[in-house]
Amino acid sequence: MQSLRPVRRVAELGSLAVMRVLKVTLLITLAAVVGCCGLVRFNRPFGFRTCFLPCTVSALRLYAHDNSGRYPDSPDPFAALQKLYPEPIHDPKLLAGISGDREATARLLMMGGRLTSNESSWVYIPGLSASNEATTILIYERRRGLAFNGARASGRAVGFVDGSHRQMPEHEFQQLLQTQQNDRRSKR
Prior knowledge:
Blueprint: H1 5-43, H2 52-66, H3 77-82, H4 102-110, E1 122-124, E2 137-141, E3 156-160, E4 165-168, H5 170-186
């Protein structure tokens, strides 16, 4: 019997080691999952917004096509943008913009309310038409540092009169926007 005690002790130590390895593995896995969730939140602070800019620009083009080349117009840019819902935009959340409040925008529009900067992060420039220069800024995300899909990116997500969109370096965006504003003022 005496000779079995060391074997039993080795077996007990072996099972303790296995338990420690399992605990460490579980902790590492848990840390990795939490870290990945944090990384996703860091990389996409407002969540995934895969089609918000491309779909909104497409809806603006459809509106212009159906309205003699004129984009939605109104003294209030949000009232102009709201003309896209419920046709050609069926999902009111698209009008929230990339960093806007999707749920508040959907509730507001479905109840017939007026869209404001409290819900939407889009900056829309009313009074344009399809005949404007192709590189004319039509719509852009209010916050810099976000890509069209909600990911962090340098510059600004911008949609143009020709239906294209791209991420512009902030200084280039500001220059183009200023030139565009000056041109519009001089034509009044």
